[in-house]
Amino acid sequence: MSTPKPTLETTFAGIKCMNPFWLASAPPTNCGEQVMRAFDAGWGGAVWKTIGAPITNVSSRYSSIDWDGHRMMGLNNIELISDRPTEVNLREIAEVKRRYPKNIVIASLMVESKRETWHEIVQRAEDAGADGLELNFGCPHGMSERGMGSAVGQVPEYCEQITSWVKEKARTPVIVKLTPNISDIRMPARAAKRAGADALSAINTINSITGINLDNFQPNPNVDGKSSHGGYCGPAVKPIALNMVQQVQSDPAAALPLSGIGGIGTWRDAAEFILLGCGNVQVCTAVMHYGYRIIEDMQDGLLAWMAEKGFTTIDDFRGLSLPNVTDWKYLNLNYKIVARIHEDLCIGCQLCYTACWDGAHQCIHLDRTAPAPDTTRTPAMVEATSAQRISTTPIPKLDSGGAAHSSAITPLERIPRVDEEHCVGCNLCALVCPVENCITMEQINNGLPPQNWDERTSAGLVPEGAREVMNTNG
Amino acid sequence: MSQRASYRQQFSPAPEIAAKFGDIHPPLGSQAATVEANRCLYCFDAPCTAACPTHIDVPRFIKKIASGNLAGSARTILDANILGASCSRACPVNVLCEGSCVMHRYNKQPIQIGRLQQFAMDSFHASGNPLPFEPGEETGRSVALIGAGPASLACAAELRRRGIRATIHDARPLPGGLNTYGIAEYKLTLADSLHEIDLLAQLGVEFRFETPVDAALLAQLESTHDAIFLGIGLGGIHQLGVAGEQLAGVTNALDLIAGYKSGLITTSPARVAVVGAGNTAIDAAIASVRLGAVEVHMIYRRGAEHMSAFSFEYEHAKQEGVNFFWHVQPTAIRGTGSVESLQLTRLAPTTDGSLILEPGSEFTLPIDLVVLAIGQGTHTTFLPNGSGSATIQLERGRIVIDRVSGQTSNPKYFAGGDCTNGGREVVDAVADGKRAGIGIAAWLEGNHVHA
Fold it and tell me: Model confidence over A156-189: pLDDT tens digits?
């Protein structure tokens, strides 16, 4: 029996699209020529770089932070909305739609907070042929100082007011783009929903200062010696975005079709956003880093994963993980796991050892070759022993009979041991281990039935406080 | 501290040598070094550090490269190994730090520790900064060091950092011993060795060059210093003991290497035979190729599996076009006035593993230069050999020391390097010298660490 071939076709808020991969409103969607090349590469849709009030941009505009030699873990920008005339943008939207009728073009809009101004821009965008509208209530820099962008998104009343003005006029679906620069993202989401929004998109960029130049003490991106807080995006923001997506989608008063945004660069990222309830995803930073061509593997990889999991459509797995995110008080306190180090895979780096001692609960020990388990030997004692060891260069002629060490096998004394009785199952060792599957977290059957904090406290079993602290020096 | 021109100013390398012995270690660029440094896992109690005889904290200096703290990186290296620059070039890293890297068991590519160390030290030297250490407060104590090789240099640095005067005596005109005169130029140039020692002199180490130490001078030094450190290395290269060995055109590997490094030798005769198969023999063979020899043969009594050279050195020699004769022994050197040919006889193994000459198997190679590299003798006749505690105990020609403190059987004498270990690497000599420097200081403070 074979399952039908998976398809990436989706319908998002009534908008039918060949795949769930849209370009976010940003530099990659600045003009018609770019958007058409993106469609040629395979992008299903594009949210046009925000059209609206006339602006002037500064130079420079972007800055980033690198991590461990990898470039652009996080990207920051102080670029404003489109600096091209509205007529030019609308004319190009019309041209793109004429030449690429199957691809989706969404007009991102941002104008001053007047009903007539919003009505006018909605009318013009739809007349140009936009398949939908995205209201930019998220931009955190520059425009917000003029009462637009995140200045709207941060005040649920403004958000609701403007959305309702747009809905009065709009014939196409209205997507409200939310800012993460707020304590509870559900509030503007609920406001948008109350005003009749058809969909949401989240998250916009996060307020940030990416760094200070240590030679001249000036911040980045540098504009004549000064900078301004900018919008942070890229791989670094994905966990924040996922959390906000889950917050919105788990709230019945806020949940709407949601276009997921924030650090998406691969099909894996996309699958995670969809599993938390997103109907499609928008991508920017990864394209700014590597170009439109990344869409090929995003489609290819997602289809392969869907086939492997037996999913035929995006809807088959959309939101599947939402029920698995809950409040802490509902977590099973009787679930017990411990770390297992697979010595056939261990390379002897001992990062788990130092992490457990300094960053966790002192449950990993270097006593595999000791006569008996030794939980009292501290990292400093281990290093002191090594410092006293006399090493010499192995010279075959001088060392005949000496055991030549094989670099292919990890010496037993370098393979750490987990004290399973005291292991709290925190995961840290497995997280720092550089070798895949070398440390696995294994469930221990403690014979106890599931019980969460709620159940435990309502049964009157209030715990006595902190766990016993190991005294390694006594 | 003596006022003098730097050794580098006293010496300018021969341009033809520089052209023929280009650096075997291409330097890492700044960005390449950062990428490589970031690849390091930062192991706890790292095996690379344990494998290094001087225990350089390898992950620490590598992560300082990654963070852009190049001065700190160099200080980390120099703190453990005052000859960190030359060791980064001369060390057989694939049997030391890189050989023990856990990456062999991860993605099979060890961190390029040697090149990273070279990057940190090159950056330090390029900065023009002085050594990041000050001499210790003067204690009034003084130590005479015999031999200006790596062991004495490392020992002297430790002594100076502890406020003990250090005066190094050497028979040669330049300091550094084998570091200066004996390491293949494509690994470490003579000029770079001297530059490194210049920095050492900032600690106030004093030098007495062209001062061979005999028994009389040694006795005088013993009476005027609080302790003696012997970093005398090994003696001359063994003789073959065959006819014709006195002919012109018979030399030894150390003289050949020292000769071309100091610019006295700039070309090679056409046909060269190097007798021996150790690392020095390989250096001499490759040098002959670079100096223009047409044929270079290495002559060894046993097979490739028994050669004492590291396998990567053997591979290097093959790549340079060196030819190998296995299981043969030179039985005569022929020529009138100078060498014309080398007579070789095949060797057959016996049941007990020893080798015997195969009668009738003699053959002759036309040869212009014979280079002997069949091991070094010892040079210990000038040492005190009286009775009791004055004796310096020897074993198989090596000076016996306590490995931790470097102290000999005569408590006032300490030793380290090749004269104690039979001939290892620069880094082993540095480690010995460092331990002895600490050992001497402890002993002088009345803390007699020797059992």
Answer: 999 999 999 999 999 999 999 999 999 999 999 9
Beta-carbon contacts of B15 under 8 Å, excluding residues fewer than 6 positions away, are none
Instruction: Establish if A400 touches chain B: CB-CB under 8 angstroms.
Output: no
Nearest chain A residue to B434 by CA: give it: A390
Nearest-by-Cβ selection for A348 from B47, B422, B427: B47
Greatest pairwise CA separation for chain B in angstroms: 70
ipTM of the complex: 0.88
* Torsion over CA: B19, B20, B23, B29 (sign): positive
Q: Is A435 on the interface with B (CB under 8 A)?
A: yes
- Residue of chain B with shortest Cα separation from A394: B95
Q: Are B135 and B163 in contact (CB under 8 A)?
A: yes
Length of chain A as a residue count: 474
Rg of chain B (C-alpha set): 23
Report how far apart, in Å, the C-alpha atoms of B295 and of each of B277, B288, B406 are.
Answer: 17, 9, 44
Question: Under DSSP, is residue A199 helix (H, G, I), strand (E, B) or coil?
Answer: strand
In this predicted model, what pLDDT tens digit does every residue of A395-425 receive, in sequence order? 877 776 544 556 789 999 999 999 999 999 9
Q: Which two tokens stand for residue B23?
A: 């650096």
Q: Which residue has the tokens 């747009």?
A: A166
Closest chain B residue by Cα to residue A214: B68
Residues B199/B342, Cβ–Cβ less than 8 Å: no
d(CA B337, CA B352): 41
Q: Low-confidence residues of chain B, pLDDT below 50?
A: 1-3, 449-451
Report whether B375 contacts B252 (CB < 8 A).
Answer: no
Q: Which chain B residues touch A379 with a CB distance below 8 Å?
A: 44-45
Contact B331, B344 (CB under 8 A): yes
Look at the alpha carbons of B73, B76, B82, B84 in this order and tell me if their dihedral is positive or negative. negative
> How many CB atoms sit inside 10 A of residue A330's CB?
10
Q: What is the DSSP string of A110-145?
A: E--S-HHHHHHHHHHHHHHT-SEEEEE----SSGGG
pLDDT tens digit string along A92-130?
999 999 999 999 999 999 999 999 999 999 999 999 999
Q: Bridge-partner residues for A52, per DSSP?
A: A110
Q: Is B206 exposed, middle or buried (0-12, 13-18, 19+ CB in 10 A)?
A: middle
Record the tokens describing residue B185, joined without a space. Answer: 């130029």
Residue B223's region, left for phi above 0, alpha for psi from -120 to 50, else beta, is alpha
Best A67, A214, A347 residue to mutate vs chain B (most B CBs within 10 Å): A347
Q: Amino acid identity, residue B240?
A: L
Q: What does the angle CA A394 – CA B235 – CA B177 come to, to the nearest 5 degrees?
A: 75
Chain B: give the shortest CA distance to residue A344, in Å.
10
In this complex, the residue of B45, B95, B435 whose CB is nearest that of residue A382 is: B45
| Amino acid at position B173, single letter | P
Q: State both tokens at A62.
A: 């972007």
Q: What are the CB-based long-range contacts (under 8 Å, 24+) for B288-294?
A: B288/B256, B288/B369, B288/B371, B289/B320, B289/B321, B289/B322, B290/B20, B290/B21, B290/B186, B290/B320, B291/B20, B291/B260, B291/B265, B291/B266, B291/B267, B292/B267, B292/B268, B293/B268, B293/B269, B293/B369, B294/B270
d(CA B31, CA A69) in angstroms, rounded, equals: 9
Q: B416: buried, middle or exposed (CB in 10 Å: 19+, 13-18, 0-12)?
A: buried
Alpha helical stretches, state H, A129-212: 150-153, 156-169, 186-194
pTM: 0.91
Tokens found for residue B171: 């028979």
Within 13 Å, how many C-alpha atoms sit on residue A75's CB side? 21
Asked if the Cβ–Cβ distance from B50 to A395 is below 8 Å, we say no
How close does chain A come to B416, measured CA to CA in Å? 13
